[in-house]
Every structure is written in structure tokens, then in C-alpha cells.
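ok here's Ferrochelatase:
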Amino acid sequence: MAKKGILLVNLGSPRSTAVNDVKEYLDEFLMDEKVIDYRWFFRALLVQGIILKTRPAKSAEAYKTVWTDEGSPLIVITQKIQKKLQKIVDVPVEIGMRYAQPSIEAGIQKLVDQGVSEIVLFPLYPQYAMSTTETVIEKAEEVRKKKFPKVKINYIQPFYNRDIYINCLAESIREKLPENFDALQFSYHGVPERHIYKTDPTNTCNLNDCCSRDSNPSHKFCYRHQCYKTTNLVIEKLNLPKEKTIVSFQSRLGKDKWIEPYTDETLETIPKKGVKNLAIVCPAFVSDCLETLEEISVEGKEQFQHGGGESFHYIPCLNDEDRWIDVVKILCEEKLNDFYLV
Ligand SMILES: C=CC1=C(C)c2cc3[nH]c(cc4nc(cc5[nH]c(cc1n2)c(C)c5CCC(=O)O)C(CCC(=O)O)=C4C)c(C)c3C=C
Ligand SMILES: [Fe+2]
Ligand SMILES: [Fe+2]
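and the structure:
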């Protein structure tokens, strides 16, 4: 029988906080046409002609504030997830990053070196997006066809609405909520509005009521819908009144219109609407990273206080919590079992 293995895939981080390493990482990341989806010439003009002139130095400074002795939080946490999962499953587990190192190719190679020929690949993103799940699958397929044509890969689908994940996230939030808070904000990574239209096979999503309707075929690929769905399921589990919750989208880049409302603007304005004590969580990320540890915990807190806010309580991601590792195990085992069915 074929030997099976698991590859956990996350976004990736620069090799170090040196400006040149950050530049190399941003170049690979932003030149991905699933991330900046302009034609090559215009993408190169924007990325290499404009963004890479100034952003690497700024981002390197931000990375320095979150970097640990072991390295980038995103990589270190993904390694911790791998180690914990390895202890409770009986197939090899490796990691691969969509950008930079360790690459998806290196992860597959490590599995193949252990005799694996059937891989369950887990893109560590709860919600589907062209710039995350889709590009991971595309890259893995490219690598598989070119380098490992005999290897089979089964992909774990977005799990934004799965009971096991929602229970796990809700419990994790419940434990970390402060005693008193005026609102719980769910801040998701944003995407350009255009990406939502592009991935809608039905051409029906209007980025409005459609995303909140309960049943619509466009939801399979609608990132905005999936973010609202995760939120609604979690607040139901937490028994929180909807009026006490806020959804927003962070980390926009460039001049395009991104999905709204924007987290930074929301943080500045909610104190004037009576939200002085805020709890905030970022469920688009399963592991803490630059976007949560710096953009939300540091910059976001400043924006909230600047707007008149008093207490700001950041709720960490699931990281390597045991209950989350159990969910990862169940999701992987479902797909491992799929191999037996074909
Ligand atoms: C969680 C899902 C993510 C989506 C969707 C996403 C889309 C997206 N991101 C950019 C641009 C940048 N993102 C950056 C960092 C970053 N993004 C995600 C996740 C998603 N991105 C993570 C986990 C991280 C942190 C990586 C780390 O090392 O900790 C950055 C780099 C940092 C910076 O310079 O600010 C950029 C740039 C775009 C353009 C996009 C959708 C089109
Ligand atoms: Fe991003
Ligand atoms: Fe939608």
C-alpha cells in the first residue's frame, strides 16, 4: 500500500529582517499573479518599479518588532503545529511555505525521501481566497507535475464553517475574553474587491447582501461571505448579541478598492460610538504573524487609543493550542481516508 504523509502549508516569511531579505520575499509574494492580479508588465511596474523601492525598509522595521530568537513567529508557530501533530498521527508531517523557505517543493521532497507517495496538503487558511488557498494549490500542482509526477495530492478545503473548527475557535476566544468589553471585533485580512468578483463562478456576488444570504453557490469562493459566516457561527456559539460584535478587514495595499469596512478606520471611529473597551480577534490567521502582532496589537491599539478608546485586548490566534491540533488531525485524517476510497 502507498505510504501517506501530511504537508502543512502557510504563507511564509522573509529569511531574516535584513532589508534585502524582506525585498526578496516581497518580490516573490507580490509578483504572484494571484496576489497582484495585473498583467505581468503592469504588475512588474507596480511591484518592482514602486512598491519594492520603499516598502522593504518599512516592512523590515516592522518585522524586527515581532521577530524572535527562533525566527519569524509565523514559521516558528507552524513548526510547533507540525511537531505537535507529528506526535498524534502515524504518518510523516512536514511543512512548506507558499513564499520563501522552507518551500512547498522542499516539504514534498522531505516526504518523498521518507517513502511517501500520497500527500494530504493542508493550506492553513480557514477562508478561501485567490491569494491564499488558490495560489497554494496552483503552486503545489505546478511542483508536483514538474518534479513529482508520481505523487498524489489531496487538498484540504477551507474549513471556515466546520463545526469542529468553530467550536475550537469559540472556546479559545471564550477563554481569552476579558471580563468587561463593549465589543468584540473580528478583523480579517482584506482582499481587493476585484478578487471577489473574479472568483465568483456565478457572477452574482455584489459584495453586499449576497455575502450574508444563507445559501448561494457563489459562497464556495466568496472570501467575504466566508469571513461573515465564521463570525456569525462563532458569536452564536459564544451567545454574544450581534450588536456587540464588529467585522472589519485589515492590511490593504495599494490604491485599489479593498473589501470594507477597513479595520484601521473602524478602530479610529468606534470609540466615539461608545466602544471604549475592545476585544479583537483575527480569525483569517491560524498563527500569529506580522499582521496580528504588529499591525493589530501595536498599530491597531494606537489607532483605537487615538480615537478615544481606553482598553484594547488582543486575542491571540489558535497557534499551537492542543484543541486546534486535534482539529488539524481530524481534518487531515478525513483526507487521508479519501485516498482509500479512490
Ligand atoms: C490570511 C490570509 C491572507 C490574505 C487573504 C492575504 C492577502 C493579501 N496580502 C497582501 C499583501 C501582504 N500581506 C503581507 C503579510 C501577510 N499576509 C498574510 C495573509 C494573507 N494575505 C500573512 C499571514 C502575512 C504575514 C506574513 C509574516 O511573515 O508574518 C505582506 C507583507 C508584510 C508587509 O509588508 O506588510 C504583504 C505585502 C495582498 C496584496 C493580498 C491580497 C491581494
Ligand atoms: Fe497578506
Ligand atoms: Fe459574496
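+1. The longest strand covers residues 3-10.
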